[in-house]
Amino acid sequence: MRAEMPGPQKPLELILARNLLTSVTTPAFLVARDGTLLFYNEGAGALIGRPFEDIGQLGIEEWTRRFGPFDDGGEPLPFAELPLTRALREGRPAHDELTVRSADGVKHRIAASAMPIVGAASGASGAMVIFWPVDDEQAREVTTGRHEVSR
Amino acid sequence: MRVRVWGARGSVPAPGPEMNRYGGNTSCVELTLASGETLILDAGTGIRTLGFSLPPDLARINILLTHLHLDHIQGLMFFPPCFRTESIIRIFGPSSPEASLEARIARYISAPLSPVEVRELPCDVSFLDAPATEWEIGGCTIRAEAVTHRGPTLGYRITDRDATVCYIPDHEPGLGTDLAELGSEWISGFDLAREADLLIHDCQYTDEEYPGHEGWGHSPVNDTLTFASRVGARRTLLFHHDPLHTDGFLDDLHRTARRRWGELGGDPEQIAIAAERAEIAIGAVPASAPARLAV
Asked: What pLDDT shows up at residue B290?
């Protein structure tokens, strides 16, 4: 049997983070140190209306263009102000309330917490962003796993 | 390169008449390089017998530890070269922000668990964090990377001329995920094991046993084979046998693994199971290896 020839293997801490996110219903993104969206779980897929398998990895400009976040006036927030960016820059958790847009164009108000991921061998390799819809009913559905990812 | 298994058991030594063919000693594998130099992978109880087989005048010894669970270091204190003043022993292992490799191993080789302390060993022993980049010993190239297990754990890829061995004795790459579906770059250990001539890999559980042991850091047969298939291993040696698995049980496990490998499109002859004292030659076989003592 021949091995596949993939891109570079991800650091172990990102592999384990992805495994963890796959196993929880809380919506979450996994982002590389350079801001590339590496993965999001089914909970996040339910909120933004598309499963990760349909989207795949995206550069930061592309995923922020698609999903936001946006300010109250609908303008994209500067990347430097996102909790994710602050977590990566400062090496500590960051939290904020933001507006994101799902694939069907509907905007959702969310609370987002970003945590840097620092590996034993590779140092700061990315961040995990966990978020909750501020809307109570939707939050309840997502956090209890009673949601469906549209395909 | 010549590969010799001195201990293939996982978790705890498992002696007994029903374990005789595969052996009861814990993880230890000896690599004899084409240059004649010896590399030792892990220091489970199998290293004790290995030590008796080494020529007394063999001075330089390199040991690569995957991690510090007891089944991988227990034999260190009973390794005869440790008690020879002329021995120069270098031990590589995973780094930790908590304490040095020596300090962590000294928790075992110290009172009240041991009658001797590390500092009392008469040999010249040094403890080194496995480098983050490739390094060389005896003409071979070694690469270490963190892999999925409980606690800091390394896998090793050793390339000696035309032969590559990958050693990942404790590994649960399928934890929380489907290895068959996962992108290769997301598979723990993939780069280490890619197209290895011999993959020595954890296969502690049957698929039926695994659901009661998820997260314990070890693989069931199906994940071991899927991993071997994904990385394109040319041969796979099933390793780290559960201490409850008797010779007859392991015979059955091996048959099952070979059949499933065939179903995956591979040659069943590519799947072997580790037994103490078994030898496998890969690529150039050492011509100048020192004479060995019968033990």
From this structure: 55
